Automatic annotation (TrEMBL):
InterPro entries associated with the record: DDH_dom, DHH_sf, DHHA1_dom, Oligoribo/pAp-PDE_c-di-AMP_PDE
Listed Pfam families: DHH, DHHA1
Residue ranges occupied by any DDH domain in the UniProt entry: 19-158
MF (Gene Ontology): nucleic acid binding
Designated name of the protein: Phosphoesterase RecJ domain-containing protein
Lineage, top ranks: Bacteria, Bacillati, Bacillota, Clostridia, Eubacteriales
PANTHER family: BIFUNCTIONAL OLIGORIBONUCLEASE AND PAP PHOSPHATASE NRNA
Ranges where the DHHA1 domain occurs: 222-317
Amino acid sequence: MSDQKLEAIAKALSKARSVAILPHLNVDGDALGASLALALALNSSHCQAHVLIEEDVPATLDFLPGQDLIKRSPEGRYQVAINIDNGDINRLGERLAVYQNAEIRLSVDHHATNKMEADVSYVDTGAAATGEIIHRLLTDYMGAPITKDIALCLYTAIITDTGGFRFSNTTPETMVIAGELMKTGIDFTNANKKVFDRISHAKLFLMKQTMNSLKLLFDGKLAVACLRWDDLSSFNAKIEDSEGLVNIGRNLEGVEVSLFLREEKPGLFKGSLRSNEYVDVAQIAEKFGGGGHKRAAGFSAEGDLDDIVKSLADAIKASLTGDA
Ligand SMILES: [Mn+2]
């Protein structure tokens, strides 16, 4: 089945001489893997494509190929800019100008809460990862060969967003694509080890702090945990070191919703929400100015931790009892 928007995106990319690829702030494996796969494919043809990010590449993703195509600042003006795995213009950070100054603005994403403005915006909420959409774009619409390097990037994108093919967003199509990628001979065990298993010393410390802070509310249906600024700064922890800590609460028996708050700067919190079976956490995150997926979402909040937890808990209580 052909999609007109993907066709238009493929056409614009095929004609472009320079492309800025813009994943969301604090890149994860899907955002960076999908971006690098596209960059590798475009650079192997006619075009100069850069992946622009503002932070360091997380150590968990340092094995991804194509990192010479990552730039910290734009090199001139780009003809085409493409937003990747991001539904919120604020998550372009300082790269917003690059996006707005491009002649053509494209967007490819899978977040249900996507609000990006673009000349062509393609959102497929049924795709487990943006990497799946990029795979479809490259193979079905651009006729680009999936090299081993591109395959490793896309495989990493998919395992990141499906938790290693375990989350409910995993589809038969996800497995078919992953199978195709494996056929190229990628070292998938290493990718899984780097993304899921290896932990830094800082992360071990943060895991302990998270467990110490964990509280249960509403008959154990809501787990709340937080990391304070002092915890994060005392161990020189990077943002990636707190990735996945929301799952400590989510995985506890009886828990439906896990709320994890990380104090990024004094008084400024980044919130993560996960649910197990029935609560739509994207709706809750949206009430607090964030967004995401039904079972995984995020938001930012400023102020006193107790107040923030209280207002979140009230909103979550309503959806736990069905009074939302
Ligand atoms: Mn994603």
